[in-house]
Design a protein that fits this description.
Length: 479
């Protein structure tokens, strides 16, 4: 187990974070403190919790440029991409408040005219452990922390070890917003730290944004602990299907954005694109290839600005290069081959491979793969039905998109593709804050986040309430 973690600004080399990994003894104490804080925090009036959440959103807005630059510096995201993440994080505060009021505030389910009132209350879980990712180090953990705090939970937050400075900034912002001591605490480290925290008897919920492998490992670790709620937001092998009617120029823009935005490091990025064989399909693919070859790949301070930034690390680029070779071994042929930049080992140019004509066994393997970077596999199919079938041929089910076609065709696509986010005439990466966000199959465990994240932050409590004890003998029905 390593003893320290540090991060440096990818542009200047200046240190952003340096600290010791949280050891097992410290984790035990953090969890104990969180348990005590949870009992106090859930008794805070809801309007006070809402006020603190709103203040946190205001701090994000006030320091918008500062946190944008910190995200870009630590994880290498392009400035426009980091700015979009900050904007989404600001909006999450009010969206979470609205979600709490609509979906999780106390309700009376009768009209109040009878002697018995039927009430639904919501009790917080207690201590929620949030395990954050590197690709959206502010927005994605924030999308779980905000509703968890609103619901009355204490939170222990472990940011990605590759985005610890952003995590530290977030925790400090919550303190500035007035959050009481120990209600939100941060622990530092990698897999070993997460394992130790999950093992704590004080944990009542574990919220992960990460890979399928990480989700499965936590699921196994929690075996036999049904009292711990597990919410998994995992990866995907996301398909986009292109109807022959779609304009090639539009296709080029939407498919390239789906596949290569954030250097392909979004869980919703398109990995497979299906075109119908023929002249129109060929034109669409050619437009996509032409658009992709024109993309500028670079770092966040380049001028003119880059379209595609670096991967999170040189190690990530090495792993992606192995994926590229695996795809070649399956029979895919390069339309745009692998090319890494001499400037920085984490800079990888977008890749497009053609899987048309590969064996069925290779198609099955392709649908099962998971990668995180700017590689897109295209495939020509005989008709749209075959494209739908291949799109659905994956154990994942996070996002999918259909470009072109009619509303009836899109409805058929939604029914068949088996994903939790299914878009029409937009990128696979399109998600709205006022909607649920979550995957099916190996992409999640029936705990959608987004607007619905508030649902897994508390348990419903049902009550039948009378103003005085009932005079009716409940045993009278058997006399």
């Amino acid at each position: 187990m390593c003893t320290s973690i540090s991060s440096f600004d990818s542009r200047t080399g200046q240190p952003l974070f340096a600290g010791d990994v949280t050891d097992w003894g410290q984790i035990a104490e953090v969890m104990r403190q969180a348990g005590v804080a949870a009992d106090l925090w859930r008794r805070h009036p809801v309007d006070q919790r809402i006020q603190i959440v709103r203040r946190y959103g205001e701090i994000l807005a006030e320091d918008r440029d500062k946190i944008r630059d910190l995200i870009s510096g630590e994880v290498g995201k392009l400035p426009w991409d980091s700015a979009g993440e900050v904007s989404a994080s600001i909006a999450k505060a009010e969206l979470s408040i609205a979600a709490w009021q609509q979906r999780r505030s106390q309700q009376q389910v009768d009209d109040g005219s009878g002697p018995v009132r039927r009430i639904v209350r919501y009790r917080p879980l207690g201590v929620a452990l949030v395990l954050g990712p590197f690709n959206f180090p502010l927005h994605l953990p924030g999308g779980q922390i905000i509703p968890a705090l609103l619901a009355g939970n204490a939170v222990v937050f472990k940011p990605s070890e590759q985005a610890t400075a952003v995590g530290q900034w977030m925790v400090q912002a919550w303190k500035r917003a007035g959050l009481p001591d120990h209600v939100l605490q941060m622990i530092v480290g990698g897999v070993e730290t997460a394992v130790a925290a999950i093992d704590s008897p004080h944990v009542n919920g574990v919220f992960l944004t990460g890979s399928r492998a990480a989700g499965r490992a936590i699921h196994r670790q929690l075996s036999g602990r049904p009292g711990v709620l597990l919410a998994l937001e995992l990866g995907g092998n996301n398909p986009v299907v292109i109807d022959p009617s779609a304009d090639p120029r539009v296709v080029a823009g939407l498919v390239s954005f789906s596949a290569f935005v954030s250097a392909g490091q979004r869980c919703t990025c398109a990995r497979r694109a299906f075109f119908v064989e023929g002249r129109l399909g060929d034109q669409q693919i050619q437009a996509l290839v032409d658009r992709t070859t024109q993309m500028r790949v670079g770092l966040c301070d380049d001028s003119p600005a880059a379209h595609v930034g670096p991967l999170i690390s040189a190690a990530a680029a090495t792993s992606l290069r192995e994926t590229y070779q695996t795809l070649l071994d399956l029979g895919c042929s390069p339309l745009i081959p692998w090319q890494a930049s001499d400037r920085n080992p984490a800079l990888v140019h977008p890749v497009i491979l053609d899987a048309t004509g590969i064996p069925e066994s290779a198609e099955a393997t392709l649908g099962e793969m998971e990668w995180f970077g700017p590689i897109l596999v295209v495939q020509r199919t005989g008709n749209l039905d075959r494209a739908f079938s291949l799109a659905a041929s994956t154990p994942y089910g996070l996002s999918a998109a259909l470009l072109g076609g009619s509303e009836d065709v899109f409805q058929r696509f939604v029914d068949q593709v088996g994903a939790g986010v299914v878009n029409w005439n937009g990128p696979t990466t399109g998600a709205a804050g006022a909607l649920p966000f979550g995957g099916l199959g190996d992409s999640g465990n029936h705990r959608p986040a987004g607007y619905y994240a508030i649902d897994f932050c508390s348990d419903p409590v049902a009550s039948l309430q009378r103003p005085a004890p009932s005079a009716d003998d409940p045993w009278s029905v058997v006399e």
